[in-house]
Amino acid sequence: MTSASSRPARLALSAALGTLLVAGSALTTTGCSDTFAAPGIGSSAQTTDALALLPTDADVYGMTNLAKARDSQALETALGDTGLGMVSGRGSADFDEFIRLTGFDPSQDLDRVFVAVSEGPSERAAFVAYGWFDRDKIERFVADNGEVAFEVTEVEGLPVYLTTVEDGQRGGFALVNDEMVLAGDQATLTAMVRRLGTSATPRDAELQALFDRVAFPDGAWFVARGLDGAGLQVDDDAPPSALAARAADGFVVSMDFGDDGVPVRAFLATKPEASTDDVADVVRGGISAARIGLKDEPSALDVLDRVEVVSEDAGVRVEGFLTPEFLAQTAR
């Protein structure tokens, strides 16, 4: 159990992690105009197939390579048996519901998960998950589940398992084969099943430009576009890093899972009217405040000291490195 005296330190460490992964990406700097060529999301068969199936109008897309995260000595050392809490999406209610409805163990059954989230009044999430799935085990889970009542139907000849969740919405999952599962609300899931075997729809230039900014396509990455349209609200008294998000039109963050730590790279695509210099001043103030608040946390200071910020033509690139010591401290 975490003691009361250590709780503020844990909150501060979480804030530092958020500064690097989210707010820190709003950093810019003056005097630099070089452009960094990131590899983008790649064109592997799994990536191509997943993006062909996921909704094309989503506001947020992401991928987490759980298999690679499991093999990272840094994460294993830092997080121990708690495993993938930082990267598995367990903080997402939609991911939790996906795991609950399927009975999958993300630390064993899932190797790679793609997600598309649509914000707004009809907020919904859709998943394409890869792993090794036992159809008999899933059917036994569906039949014996005393908590959730499933209805088994077919779409294009493929069994689809549907149920009604607490908010009255219908959703579920479909086992495409022993290596692929689709999940989402009923309408989205049905549309995904019907797209099986089709080619990916060409992405619009705005989204493709964000995908091209992904630095670690085989680790974990998240891309958000149209932040204004997605209903991003920032209060006037929000932290400086959050205020800087007002200048954002799109956001990219990606990380890799190495044996010696987790490199992170983020990119903030700024609005045309935004002054990146002004955004830099605002967020630099936020990081300075974070360093003061974390003066007694050497591992957090080490992470903040490694942050590198570079201004580019279309926005701002920020790089950092999460050490095993920092990850272990954050997980406590």
Topology:
Elements: H1 7-21, H2 45-53, E1 60-65, H3 66-70, H4 73-79, H5 93-102, E2 110-118, E3 124-131, H6 135-144, E4 151-155, E5 158-164, E6 170-177, E7 180-185, H7 186-194, H8 205-211, E8 220-225, H9 240-244, E9 248-255, E10 262-270, H10 276-293, H11 298-305, E11 308-312, E12 315-322, H12 324-331
Antiparallel strand pairs: 1-2, 1-8, 2-3, 3-7, 4-5, 5-6, 6-7, 8-9, 9-10, 10-12, 11-12
Shape: globular
How large is the radius of gyration?
21 Å
How many helical stretches? Answer: 12
Taken as a percent bin, the fraction of beta residues is 25-35%
pLDDT < 50 stretches: 1-36, 81-91
Task: Explain how this protein is built.
By secondary structure, the protein is of the alpha+beta class. It has 12 helices and 12 strands. Strands 4-5-6-7-3-2-1-8-9-10-12-11 form a 12-stranded antiparallel sheet, with helices on both faces.
Explain briefly what this protein structure is.
The chain is an alpha+beta fold and 332 residues long. The protein has helices at 7-21, 45-53, 66-70, 73-79, 93-102, 135-144, 186-194, 205-211, 240-244, 276-293, 298-305, 324-331, and strands at 60-65, 110-118, 124-131, 151-155, 158-164, 170-177, 180-185, 220-225, 248-255, 262-270, 308-312, 315-322. A twelve-stranded antiparallel beta sheet has the order 4-5-6-7-3-2-1-8-9-10-12-11, sandwiched between helices.
Looking at this protein, list some descriptive labels.
single chain, 332 residues, 12 strands, 33% helix, 26% strand, globular, disordered N terminus
